[in-house]
Amino acid sequence: MEDIFGIPAPLLFGQLLLGLINGAFYAMMSLGLAVIFGLLNIINFTHGAQFMMGAFAAWMLLEWAGLNYWWALLLVPIIIGFTGVVLERLMISRLYKLDHLYGLLLTFGLGLIIEGVFRNQFGSSGLPYRIPPELQGAWDLGFMFLPIYRGWVVIAALILCLATWLLIEKTRLGAYLRAATENAPLVQAFGVNVPRMVTLTYGFGVALAAIGGVLAAPIYSVNPQMGTNLIIVVFAVVVIGGMGSILGSIITGFGLGIVEGLTKVFYPEASATVIFVIMAIVLLARPAGLFGRA
Amino acid sequence: MADSTAITANSIPAPAAENHGIWGFSRAQFGALGVMLAVLAIGPFLLYPVFLMKLLCFALFACAFNLLIGYVGLLSFGHAAYFGMGGYLAGHAAKVWGLTPELAIITGGVTAALLGAVAGWVAIRRQGIYFAMITLALAQMIYFLCVQLPFTGGEDGIQAIPRGSLFGVVPLDRDLTLYWVVAGIFLLGFLMIHRIIHSPYGMVLKSIRENEPRAISLGYRTDDYKLLAFILSAGLAGVAGATKSIVFGIATLTDVHWSMSGEVVLMTLVGGLGTVFGPVVGAAVIVTMQNYLAELGAWVTVIQGVIFVICVLAFRRGIVGEIGNWLKVKL
To answer: Which of A32, A232, B19, B286 is deepest in the core (most CB within 10 A)?
Structure first.
């Protein structure tokens, strides 16, 4: 067996893959946060709970309705995205004229409610979700075995991230969105229904989190805390990348996942804290974030 | 500009000739202080002293948190780190080093202040929402350190912390004796915060809250002011946590967890952001609620979430803020 820097190659590549998968979730979550923040000026603390709801919705569709993984991948973002739309209309839209911090506090409270309800209903031990039969097994890449599902998660996340980037940077709808981010009243004066766009943007960001939840369900066990633990790391990712750039969020997310994976190989004790340390260093050197505008 | 509106409910700057009645308290505030002192004095004879001590620790914690959010406009979402670390260090000092309780509590407070100096130095580089996210992330890092460091005892925490004897002479085994000490620590912290916000330094803090660019243009180094406020707040939060671990004899991961950071935000929000007495009332409400609803398990989280939502949507002044608004006084 070959060694790289004194580390057995399968171990190194295995951790790199795990890092890539974590990075895929960081990228998708921070992308959703950035899209929502761009237009609503709100940090969506509920994002973690909505990720968790996505995973639970996939589980419920399978167990209660008999709908498989592929249906879940299609339906869950629509369902959870719709709950996001309702949430925005009923509550979040009342806060736009206030200090942005109230948005953080409101969505934090909503996250507590959702997490608590799910913990009451399903306990905190976690439920299993089987990998769909089409994606079971592993490919032998010569230097390592790649479980097909894990490869699929990385590719699916990449496609989703790039599609979002194309949607926002290259389409007319995206142009409206970017314009409204810069100057909402002016865009409204041109006849674009900005409040509806704001609502749909929130729904879209939430749907991204929900798809993340579906993708995560077969890898991590489906449990009520899965989102909150993730969202705090994602906050650090967002601070490191800066929320100004879509592509920046994607690159930062994947990059930090890989860094975290490598830390697990070379200095496992620091793997839980490495992203926070990087955040502190970035703040000292470049307070606006790697891709942020000051 | 909507962005610079401070989060506090009573963000209208107090007129320069604020009624400095007695010791810097306005007449209404002095009345409220009298009520609080009376409750402190009678409380232990009506209610279980240990419950009251828990309440006072959280009240001091919330007051320390309010110093930042209410008077500088900085929302720290990671104050559990300083509260919990203060508790760990005090526990370690009392149990392993054999220090007397007052020295153990000072150790906890100083450690938390040092930690706050480092975290604050990093966090004050950003404002608003970013500041909240950064403090939360740094606190999560401290949480993971507490899970891994050997002296914290991991999942078990530090247990059987001795109460010891105050100054090595007054044994604190009796709950009532310890209660007077805790009440004294709380009052000291409370009056210290009051003194800070009524000092010229506190006036600068409030001006930063109202309009930071203008404070900078007037020649104030706002970063230095904010950092000092962060250190003071973290240190007092550490004193609160240290006192709590001496009272209960344990220091655990619960006190460093992010949900504790959320709880202190909730206490202050319920009581009234930027009011002097709000955090005390808010802490009393939340701790009492937890005490009576403890058997409901995870529903407590749901109820806390609902209170958060209601407070943000309809009740932004908080209890004390509403009372003050109703009586047309600043409490």
So the answer is: A32
Chain A within 8 Å of B136 (Cβ-Cβ)? yes
* CA pair distance B291, B307, nearest whole angstrom: 16
Q: pLDDT above 70 covers what percent of chain B?
A: 93
* Interface touch A284/B122, C-beta < 8 Å: yes
Nearest 5°: phi and psi at A143? Answer: -95, -15
Tokens of A173: 């709808």
Q: What is the mean pLDDT of residues A249-261?
A: 91
Q: Do B129 and A101 touch (CB under 8 A)?
A: yes
Enclosing H/E stretch for A113: helix A100-122
**Of B5 and A291, more confident:** A291
Calpha distance A184→A83 (Å, rounded): 24
CATH code of B52's domain: 1.10.3470
Mean pLDDT of chain B, nearest integer: 86
Rounded (10°) CA dihedral A110, A111, A116, A121: 100
pLDDT band at A289 (very low <50, low <70, confident <90, very high): confident
Statement: residue A40 has pLDDT above 80: yes
Domain that holds residue B122: 21-327
Q: Among A150-154, B24-28, B155-159, B318-322, whose mean pLDDT is lowest?
A: B24-28
Tens-digit pLDDT profile for residues B112-167 = 999 999 999 989 888 888 898 889 999 999 998 898 888 888 788 888 888 877 78
Helix residue spans in A144-273 (DSSP H): 148-170, 172-182, 184-189, 194-216, 226-241, 246-266
| Structure tokens belonging to residue B270 | 């319920």
Mean pLDDT is lowest, of A155-169, B195-209, B288-302, for: B288-302
* Residue type, position A233, single letter: V
* Residue B20 binned pLDDT confidence (cut-offs 50, 70, 90): low
pTM of the predicted model as reported, rounded to 2 decimal places: 0.88
DSSP reduced 3-state for B251: strand
Q: Which CATH number is A3-285 given?
A: 1.10.3470
Q: Residues 274..303 of B with a Cβ closer than 8 Å to A: which?
A: 297-302
Q: Compute the distance between CA of residue B57 and CA of residue B284 in angstroms, rounded to an integer.
A: 10
**Beta-carbon separation of A272 and B134 below 8 A:** no
Query: What are A59-87's pLDDT values in tens digits?
Result: 999 989 888 899 999 999 999 999 999 99
**What is the Cα–Cα distance from A237 to A177, expressed in whole angstroms?**
23
Residue with tokens 């991948």: A73
Closest CA to A209 of A41, A46, A2: A46
Length of chain B: 331
Among partner residues A43, A94, A287, which is closest to B129 by beta-carbon distance? A43
Looking at the partner chain, which of A101, A117, A284 has a beta carbon nearest the beta carbon of B132?
A: A101
Q: Is the residue at B10 inside a domain?
A: no
CA-based nearest residue in chain A for residue B259:
A112
Domain ranges of chain A: 3-285
Residue B9 belongs to a domain: no
